[in-house]
Amino acid sequence: MKTKSMWSFRLSTAALVLIPIAIGINYIGKTIAAGLKLPLWLDSLGTILSSMLAGPIVGGLSGIINNIIYGITLDPVSTVYAITSGVIGIVVGALAYKGWVNNFAKALLLGLVVGAIAATVSTPLNMIFWEGQTGNVWGDALYAYILSQNGPIWLASFLDSIVVDLPDKLISVLLCFFIFKGLPKNVKRLYQNNQRFEEL
Amino acid sequence: MTLYVKQDSLIHEIDPITKVIYAFVAALLPYILPSHTVALIVLVISIMLLVVGKVFRKIIPLIGLSLFLIVSLVIIQGIFRPDNVTPLFHFGPIIFYKEGLSYGLLLMLRVINLLCAFGVLILTTKPDDLIQSFIQKGMSPRIGYVIGSVLQLIPQMSATIATIKDAQRSRGLETEGSLLVRIKAFLPLIGPVIMNSLISTRERSIALEVRGFNAKQKKTFLHEVHTYKYAKVIQAVLILIFIFAILWRIFL
Amino acid sequence: MLSCGGFSYEKIIVENLKYKYPDTDQLALNDVSFEVEEGEVIGIVGQNSAGKSSLCLALTGLIPHFFNGAYGGKVLIDGIEVKTSTITDLSQKAGLVFDNPFTQMTASKYTVYDEIAFGLENIGVSREEMIERVDWSLKMMGIENIKDKNPFDLSGGQMQRVAIASVIAMRPEILVLDEPTSQLDPQASEEVFRVIQQLSQEGITIVIAEHKMEKLASFTDRILLLYEGKQIDFDTPQKVFSRDDLHDYGVVPPIFTTYCKAMGMKNKKTNTYPVTLAEVSSLLGGENNEWNKS
Q: Where is the ABC transporter domain (chain C) (predicted)?
């Protein structure tokens, strides 16, 4: 089944149709999490799931398009993080393809890696646009604390990000891992575009 | 799902691509040239365009979304910015400094300006027109499909959520109470929507395939392009300003 | 393209078609062979998983091109071999409508009018012709009044007619419908059946998989009976529904046939039971009574 590279840009129709669904799931996750007043964003479930299902290209596109669309429809600030979302999709897609979603322990590790990478990518963006802050209460409190202790801004900014991103991405990846495991086989195979029919 | 406001205005008449260029140039200028004056001038221009576009009132909730970020920027920079030296005033033991407040104010202007600049685009441009303009500029129609589809599906999926919420509640799912209770409610609420929407991708793919989605022919369009007389001139001016700003920053 | 000697009056030719979905062991279609003439209306009947949907997908090229799996035999649509063609090319020969109205909407167009034009934009139809075709489709389906509505704001029955309009705008000569009314209420089903019959009168060849046997009996020319992927029969509704072993294949004949069977009312000439109300009443009220109690 893995004859074609996971990096192929020739996406099947099903893989393309998955992208808007993924973005919709991101939105639904965010809405429900906010509705339940959970202390997490949970706004990247769709991106992560689509990456697990269809690989890094679909995952990356889901992430980037997700933030651009939020930017032009609901919240312009989110456009800034299109890069972060894209990187999350690419990382999850590539690592899932390498077998990082085969069991719970690996998925746990994947969640930590994704959280750390998300914070690393967001930090320079936060530095450029808002002097390293994130607009999250807990993150910004930590940021203020580090600065008051005369810590460097980049460190304050990175910790500001990681406080927000690490738990959120870890929980998100684990939730997606359970959903992914529960999906029927014919749904999982739908998004691979590397098959041919055989003669009978 | 769209913030587009249907109005009859000069700004609505401008073609989408010109407005996209405006949004980016206007949003980035105060970052390229870090001065309060530049940020203020660009912000005033954006606000004027919003007023001419008859959509000024619609920008307020948009700014409201980022209110916490904006306030937090001014306060934290005012108190903690490393190069703070000149105390300005204090609340009890908390001292606000001139340098930090000034910088926080610049950050605030930048954020509000970014919101207003994109507001000009978002509030006065129909999403389908925007997508079609990009396709005609060479963006893949398949990506165009994806964007169009998101805007159509999100309200659809939100409606499903409301239905599921009611159904789950009537079956005794608790969505209020301690954090643990609320965490436990998350998966039963979102699970069915995720499953159904993933399963629906198969049928939707079929529906698209039988309507030539993978056709190799050059695509045609039902709607004619929305053209604007002064598009080229305005675009050229915007890009020149942008280049000039970068050169100014580098050489002066 | 000129075909030398390959010209056939048959719109659809299926020869020894076999198909197996990926990751399955059983054949979904097992040696199916039949031919359909231009303008005919063909009903496909059989219980769930008899192969009705698979056959519909095979006539429109989704089997094998979308589903992959294992494929054998031959399907010719208007002279074009499905196996070596593409779904796009076939879509202009044989259109497909299926049961779920909601998923058949592209979800990327904001009005019914634009929705119907979607396929035409993809295959590069000129703007003038596009408008002409969309207007024709709207009229055929009787949905001109909702052309400016958002497809997702419609009722199931309206949505299904938009789905049919979107497919016939591609101007196929064959329309394949896979249980087009199974998710609709009775009134909406009636409307959908009415427009299908109208399309048939326009000369479009129709293949329809359906569970509503009374409906099928009233407007199909021939019925294809499938069971576990195998073709059991392909004949007139009277012949197929008069079979004594119909129940073994999980098919319930039209209510009229069941009654007449119970009462032993048979057409002596053809040796079949009536399948429609019209046939029953001609038996009961007709002067030259060709139906007799046996």
A: 12-253
